[in-house]
Each structure stands twice: as C-alpha cells, then as structure tokens.
Amino acid sequence: MSDLPNDPSTGVDPLDLDDDWIPDLEPEPAIDAPRQPLVRQVDPSSPIMMVETAFLASASSLIWLVNSYFPMGPVLQVFFPVPIAMVYLRWGNRAAWMGALVSGLLLSVLVGPPRSIQFVIPFGLLGVLLGVLWYRRVRWAVSIPISALLSVFGDFFRLWLGSILLGEDLWLYGTVQVTNLLEWIFTRLGLLLQPSLEVIQLFAFLIIVLRSVVYVSMVHLVAWYLFDRLKTPIPRPPRWVQVLFDND
Question: Where do the TM regions start and end (predicted)?
C-alpha cells in the first residue's frame, strides 16, 4: 500500500494527477446561439473603413449599371442593396449612408443624375434599411414586410419620375397592360366580364406589392447564403427555410 494522499478531501495526491484528467472548465458554445454582426469600432477616418466602403459602394453601383445595359432579369437585381447592407453590418450607420451616397455620385457621373436617383431610391435606401434590421437581429417575418414597403414606395417613385422625364403617364400605360391581362384571364375562364377601372388599379397595385415581397425575400436568401461565408451573418430564417435549403 502506498502512502496516504496529501489531499484528504479528494483522496488523490495533486502532484500525481495526469494533465488529461483535469476537466475543461470553459463551457462549450451553444450550437443555436445567435451570432452577432461584425461591427468594428474604429476611427471613422480609418483608411480600412474608407477603402472597404468605397469598394462595396462602387460594386453596388456597377452591378446596377451592368444590369441596365445587359439585363439579366432578377439574377443581378437581388444584389443591388446587398453591398450597402454589408457596409452597415461591418462598419455601422455612418459608413452605410456614405456608401449609398458614393454609389449615387458614381452613377451620376457615369449615367447622369436621373438614373442615379433611380438607384438610390429605392436600392440605396433599401440597403441601409436592411443593414439596420439585420444589425438589430429583426426576424424575417418583420424585416421582409418592412423592406417590401420601401420597395413598393421605390416602384411608385420611379413611375412618377419616369413619367416626368418621358412626358407620359406610365401608370396609365401600366393599367392598360393590366387590363389586357385581366381580359385574357377572363376569356380563358369563359367569363363575359369587363373589369372596372378600380379593379384594374387594385390588381396593378397588388402585382407591385407581390413583386416587392418576392424581391426582398430573394434578397434575404442571397444575403443569408453570402454573408455567412463572409463571416458577417444575418438573423436566421424560419426553420422550414433552413431545412429547405439546408444551409446550416
């Protein structure tokens, strides 16, 4: 029998303990713990912040410019507000507004002020708004309707601005197209109905709202997939979306 241990409370000599026996006292992080956005607290005049903000702002405006001359449908459109939102998550509110302003100024030089305004409203503002919502960890069920409202406002603003620049009522042109669509639907269904002006305008408004909801939902999905890989995660989508895309 060996000598009694020096520590009567444990029954083991502390000098004879193996280092592997000592438990790890630091708790393991929870798998589902919410991840916080990466916002760096630095001097606003930091060259890193200025360079990254300018790069992301120019990327956003150039994506919009390329899509204007080589339209690719919704493929590039979902990326319009994403760089500005990235600026907010990485550098904060002031940098995001600076990025939106720089994007507008760059497009103003390249294609003129009217076209640049059509980018800033709504895509520049939408990028800042999404950055605010994602930084505050707002759920998708709330952030999507809020951002969709801004997108709807932007669509009507562009209709109004385009009508002024072209000298034609683009809303009236839209209602004519919707009228033709409704008449085609009624004909296919065998209904002898003539839609009223109020029904046509309501249907046109609902189309704009539906388009905005689908658009901002796609922006959320793209940002969720992209920002996770850039180590700047946004709030998690609903569970069924995670299961559907299996991104975790």
Answer: 48-66, 96-113, 119-135, 142-161, 199-227
> Do residues 54 and 91 make contact, with C-beta atoms less than 8 angstroms apart?
no
The answer to whether 96 and 127 are in contact (CB under 8 A) is yes
pLDDT one-digit tens code per residue, 152-162: 999 999 989 88
| 11 assigned to some structural domain | no
Q: What's the whole-model pTM score?
A: 0.77
Q: What is the DSSP string of 41-80?
A: ---TT-HHHHHHHHHHHHHHHHHHHHHHHS--THHHHTTS
CATH number for 58: 1.10.1760
**Residue 86 contacts residue 227 (beta carbons within 8 Å):** yes
Q: Quick check: is 20 in a domain? A: no
Question: Does residue 78 belong to any structural domain of this protein?
Answer: yes
Domain count, the chain: 1
Structure tokens that stand for 48 in this block:
């890193």
**Which tokens belong to 35?**
């991840």
d(CA 160, CA 204): 15
Alpha carbons within 13 angstroms on the beta-carbon side of residue 34 total 12
Range of the domain at 189: 35-245
pLDDT in tens, 133-142: 999 999 999 9
